[in-house]
Amino acid sequence: MNRKDNRAADGMRPVSLEYDAQPHADGSVLIRMGGTHVLCGVTVEEKVPGFLEGTGQGWITAEYGMLPCATHSRGRREAATGRSGRTYEIQRLIGRSLRMMVDLAELGSHTLRVDCDVINADGGTRCASITGAALALRRALERMVEREMIPELPAVLPVAAISVGVVDGEVLLDLDYSEDSRAEVDANFVMAGDGRWIEVQSTAEGTPFAPELFGQMAMLAAKGIEELFRLWKD
Length: 234
Description:
By secondary structure, the chain is α+β, with helices and mostly antiparallel strands. Helix content is 29%, strand content 29%. Helix 2 crosses helix 3 (125-146). Residues 12-139, 158-223 form the Exoribonuclease phosphorolytic domain.
């Protein structure tokens, strides 16, 4: 099939990063993946949730939101309507993924609160949020060392995510909205820097799909995520 931006089936959208996009955050990255733009900011708090008090262990949590004009038609602010089930699902996914990056015991009694705000949405917002938030979290950890909040930088496991789908019978990498909205199969893959999977979300939109097709999707996702891990080296 011909993709609207003339990408190959295994082609990624252009990716760019703007570090310190929020100067008051302890770490921040504005990530652009094609038409999807997400602002990821990290705040370090000198406290932990009640279930961790007295343990010396830290915590990482995330919140996700979409600005009203991020999509083709204005969405209502969740501050007025309350968070949707989709929002809770996505921010829990982000939080689970980011907690894989470090040994929480090395954070001391600190909570790293990550905010992912979608400025413009064109498919793959949760994947862009995870990829950008992981880089912002690394920056926040570096600053914790600079401020002597922790004695040294913990071992950091890179994390990134990408979408894969089946559109018109073809497996495609990094779907934009026009592709995602008519995909027969839709999946999101989260991977650690050592090649292990962290989480996979996969759904058949029409009919069930064969294990062989899932294997093709996983291989394509791994290829795309390896490209995203170059952002860590850059």
